């Protein structure tokens, strides 16, 4: 491996070609000579390509460790750490988010460094305003996945301790939690920007997977009770045209604003419905029905085709469509494919086609930019197709949703184009986001003049690099039969036999 590492050279110029029978050819200019590797099957290419991703992860981690260990994120241009105000005094978001990726990539030394930090320096006795959602998906999810992959009790006890600290957020008249919680005092309140003190669908709807595991591991039913009550409230209220608006009052239990989106503010609520059913080993019929009904309403009211033939999912504001898709909404290709797998008859093909079309549209949002990375939001109006029209929507912050859909589409269809598309992303990341000390987001995907935002998001290590790596692994590495990924790509085991406490990926 060492000699290959020295030989890698400029990865951004590497080309990966595959033909319909699955042959792969990788060409790249190494430091000393050009390489041209033609492989009769994926196995050799798998080694090469996954080797690249491991190097990328190591580079992202090493720089975080060097300049920002113990802070939440790395600022790769100024070479320092960033704390931010999302995690209420908790630190080390990148450490916790990176744990499972380091582990599955077999970056043993780096995993031990991360583990040691969690053991010795991760402080849970903090005061400050935390996002319930972010702490749950990154910290609780990250610790749970680390526990299930390694069997190390330390991860489990920290996950449980943190889970307990989130419970006061549910003390509202309806039991719908508020978005912000002080982890020290237990005081909770709604986001200042959320209209009329409302709670956000994608926030209170993205707790189920983690909370079921907290009950499983602690024996304490309270976690499951809290999330089952959320479901009860949602089932009780009327849905306009069968759609779920993004804002709900935790006091009255009524919708506050009729904005519906499968992107930001709504997204992972839908994801957690289908994944709750899968994680229950297909026993949670209620979650499946909620997912099926929601998707039916989305198909009926929000799925549209552009003049140029691109399928997209629009947003809905009180009955008026906004013909825009956020990068966040691009996870839905993967989600719909995952659900389609288990649909019956005609619907299976219909949903698989929809998933492929959405993933294709999201790929178009990448391929129509100069950097080959996609914007934060793209539109389908006034002659625009899959392109950002507003200056404020041209940025790319290392988000995973598009490669996430490539991974699911690959696993479920084995169409080689998804690996090809994943490879395009790798090359674009190397060319436009890699800087001297890590990876950075960019402010404008439509210019190749460097315009870095100086932030290496923790989800780049948790999700983007993990999904890319898995895209080039065999299907049995974190198989979709045995694992569900939480919305931060932390793998949680499927309840085949009462959640096997320790599962091995290798
Ligand atoms: C991540 O924290 C999660 O994927 C979440 O569901 C959405 N936002 C980021 C990545 O874009």
TrEMBL record:
One of its GO terms (cellular component) is endoplasmic reticulum. Keywords: Calcium, Disulfide bond, Glycosidase, Hydrolase, Membrane, Metal-binding, Signal-anchor, Transmembrane. It is an enzyme of class 3 (hydrolase). Its cofactor is Ca(2+). Pathway: Protein modification; protein glycosylation. GO terms for molecular function: calcium ion binding; mannosyl-oligosaccharide 1,2-alpha-mannosidase activity. The keyword NAD does not apply. The active site is at 134 (proton donor), 267, 376 (proton donor), 401. It is a single-pass type II membrane protein. Transmembrane segments: none annotated. Belongs to the glycosyl hydrolase 47 family. This is alpha-1,2-Mannosidase. It comes from Crocodylus porosus (Saltwater crocodile).
